[in-house]
Amino acid sequence: MHRNWEADGNGREGLRDLLRQHVCAACGHHVAVPFYDGGHQPLATLAWPASAEEARRMERLPLRFVRCVECGHVYNPEFDYSKVPYSEKPNLMFNRGEGWREHLLQVRGLILKRLPLHPTVVEIGCGEGHLLRALAEAHPEGRYIGFDPNAKVDTGGGMIEARQELFDPAVHLADCRPDLIISRHVLEHLMDPMGFLQALSFSATWEGVETRLFIEVPCIDKVFAMGRTADFFYEHNSHFTTESLSRLLKRCSREVELVERGYDDEVVYGFVRIGVRAAQAAYAREALAFRGRAAESKDRVRAHLDALARSGKRVAVWGGTGKAAAFINRYGVDAGRFPLVVDSDPDKVGTFVPGTGQEIRFRDDLKLEPADVILIATQWRARDIVGEIGREGIACQAILLEHEGSLVDYFRDPHPYGEAEAAGAPGAKGYSAA
User: For residues 200 and 191, what is the distance between their CA atoms, to the nearest angstrom?
Assistant: First the structure.
């Protein structure tokens, strides 16, 4: 039986108090519930106060974590990336513990198994470069490139290349064309980790790069059983479970090869393949082609309107709100040259066209003061409007509308908005071309 979540005598919260609408950073779901409210705390890993007084004066930032009800991801929707000085101070990780050394050896082994003979390996957020150096030592035939805007990278005497900058998928993927991209302990700091991985994936599609991606992040699977709260501090915006990382990787790749936990289940990592995805490339090319046509049509239609204004003919624009207002504003149908705007809807009469300010008049005004040219601003309604013009006995010399970047004559030129006779209009009877 459906339960309406309302507060009851046992103190259970109602649904109105529980439901949060935020976009999950891992799966994109829009519904979450409160998870952990840590109040306001200072930065924990990137502040480095130089004195006790400076430490006490640090800004305190909100720790209000929620949990996605779809994939279980935990994140802080109040996180503000600009509050964290990544550009000024590195995020140091302690890498000398014995258990952590063993984990790094395991990661290195997993990566080495998947490298070709002469690989190019890119690490995003490489820190001081310990993993890349370890890979280069074991597989010296490759090229190893570490991106980190803050860290002082130890290149191992030239074994690895250090780039003191942020990795930009739109630039560096084509530049480096890597066989493997590594990103360890980076995604948890980002405002939009899914957006970053999808940008990587689309860049691979656009540039024709087939590559693998290795992701590692802290794992909070144990938090739920142990009740730990120290895991949650401001710099870590996202907290991944095994499930939420799996969902993220599925959303952003062609194939998920592996998702496993390591370091006593305190981290979770995965291997995925990214590369050319034909549908994405097709959508992108279609969008760019439309953008190009739209830019060309703007100039063409404006030129036609300029000529129409110079002709001295009385022009009535049919339609003044919604898509018609969009047409009027895009093509510069200004009130000075085109003051007459009419509409079929009596409720719109007496209001004004957004942006250009013509007062919208009722269509019957054209019976008393006919226009030479009627310009239909909403092509999708053209057949109905032409039928209405015919039934109401509204005379004009020509009816124009925009099609494929030009103003065309409704009766003389080819377009897909015709068949006016089916709507009761008398065809071209009573009309003459301008």
Answer: 16
Residue 424 has pLDDT above 80, yes or no: no
How far apart, in whole angstroms, are the C-alpha atoms of residue 278 and residue 145? 29
Q: Would you say 335 and 312 are in contact if contact means Cβ atoms under 8 Å apart? A: no
**Alpha carbons 391 and 58: distance in angstroms, whole number:** 74
Residue 98 φ then ψ, to 5°: -65, -45
For the record, the structure tokens of 277 come out as 């995805």
Gap between the Cα atoms of 72 and 134, Å rounded: 34
pLDDT band at residue 419 using 50, 70 and 90 as cut-offs? low
The answer to whether 217 touches 185, Cβ cutoff 8 Å, is yes
CA end-to-end span of the chain:
69
Rounded-to-integer distance, Cα 182 and Cα 391, Å: 69
Three-state secondary structure string covering 79-108: CCHHHCCCCCCCCCCCCCCHHHHHHHHHHH
Cα separations in angstroms, 190 against 161, 170, 185: 24, 18, 10
The 3-state DSSP class for residue 388 equals helix
Half-sphere exposure of 15 (CA within 13 A, CB side): 5
| Six-digit token string for 370 | 């006919």
Task: Find all residues with CB under 8 Å of 168, minimum gap 6, and list them.
Answer: none
Signed CA dihedral, 280, 286, 288, 294: sign only: negative
Q: How crowded is the C-beta side of 86, counted as CA atoms within 13 Å?
A: 18
User: What CA dihedral angle connects 9, 11, 12 and 14, to 10 degrees?
Assistant: 80
- Of 69, 396, 18, 391, the closest CA to residue 244 belongs to 69
**DSSP-based three-state secondary structure for 364:** coil
Nearest to 144 by CA among 118, 167, 171: 118
d(CA 265, CA 246): 15
Tokens 């065809």 found at: 427
- What is the pairing mode between strands 341-343 and 360-362? parallel
Return the closest-CA partner of residue 426 out of 381, 382, 389. Answer: 389
- Angle, CA 212 vertex, CA 236 and CA 254 arms, to 5°: 90
| Model confidence pLDDT, tens digit, residues 291-320 | 999 999 999 999 999 999 999 999 999 999
Residue type, 307: A
